[in-house]
Give the backbone structure.
Amino acid sequence: MRHPIILSVAAASLALACGAGAALAQTATGTVQVNGTVANRCLFVTGDVVLDLGELSLLAGDTTAIGRLDGAKLTSRTATLNGWCNGVSASMAVEALPILNTSFTDAAPAGFDRRVDYTATATASPAGGAVSASDSTLAAGSGAGSTTGVFSSDIVVSFADPSTPTSGRLVAGAYAGSVIVTLSPAT
Amino acid sequence: MNKTILIGAALLGLAAAPAALAQTVTGTVNVTGSVAARCVVITGGSGSSFSGSIPLGELAGTDGTLSSTLSGSTNASPGGSTQFRVNCNSAAPKVTLSSTRLALSPTVTAPTGYANVIDYTAALDANLANGSTQTVSYVTAAALPAATVQSLSDSLANSANNLTVKAYALNTASGALLMAGNYASVISITIEPV
C-alpha cells in the first residue's frame, strides 16, 4: 500500500510543477512619452535705434546745390538692429516713413521742400545667406516681406534713393522720419 | 513422542499468527506549490505593459531660450511627471531605465545659436514596502549612455501610484534659442521581478 501512495504524490507533484511552468517570471515594461512645444516667435534684442543724420542740406560746393538735400548724409549711414526668429517660415518687412520737417509744418514755399524721401533696406543674415526687405517712402504702406526663416543676427538698415519732392532747398528746422522693421513668426 | 510434540508446537504457532499481524501503516502526502516571480501592471496599462505621457507644454521662455522653470526643475519639483502602479512579488525588483533626447520632430537643422534638441533627466521614483522611496535616474546626452540598471532595496509598496516617472533638469547649450515646433522623447522602463 505504501508504494502506490508515494506514486500518486509524485504524480501530484508533477502536475503542480506543470502548473508553475505556466506562471513564469513576468517582467513589466513601460513607455512614457515626453512632449513639448516651442511656439513660433520673433524678438528684437536691439529694436530701437536713433540715427542722427546731422545737417541734411549741402553747406558748400556748387552754389546752385547749396541748401538742397545732401543725399550722402543718408546713403552713407546705416542703423543696426539685432533680432531673431525661431520658425522656418518667419519673414521680415520694412515700412519707411519720410523724413519731415517737424518744426515747419506748413506747405513749403516754392523752391523749398520740407520732406525727404528715400528707400530703406533691412538686411538680416540667416545661415543660408543674407535676406533683405525694402520699402520706399514714395509708396504708402510696407514693402513686400521676405522670408528669413530661422535666424539670429544683426539687421542692418541702409538707405538709398534720397530725394525731395521738388529738389528744392530744405526748409530749416528739425527733421524726423522712421524705418519700421517687422519680424513676423509664421504660423 | 518427540516428533508429535514438535508438530503440535508448529500448529500452535500457526494458530497464534493472525493476532500478531496487526500493524500500523503510515503515509505522507507532500502538498507543494509555488508562486512565480512576476510584476503585473495595475494602473497605467494592463498585463505586462504600461504607458503614459508627460506633456511639458511650451518649452521656451519669453526670450526664446529654454524656460527657466524647466531648466531649474528638480526631482522634488519636476518639469512633469506621471504615475503608475505595478505590483511585483519579489524582494528586490530590478529596474532598467533609459530615454531618448527631447528632440524637434520633424527635425530641422539648427543654425548657430539655436537648439533643436533638449537633454534632461528621466527618473523613476519607486515607493518601497519599507516606506522609503528609491530613485532611478537616467541623464540624456548627445551620445546616449547605457541604460541605468538598478535593483530596488526592498519590495515595491503594495499601494496606488507606487511608481512615479519624472522629467526634469532640462538643458541646452548655454543661451541657445529653441527652434519652433514640436518636441518629443521616449522614456523606456523595465521592471523585472528579481
Remarks:
- Residues 2-20 of chain B form the longest helix (19 residues).
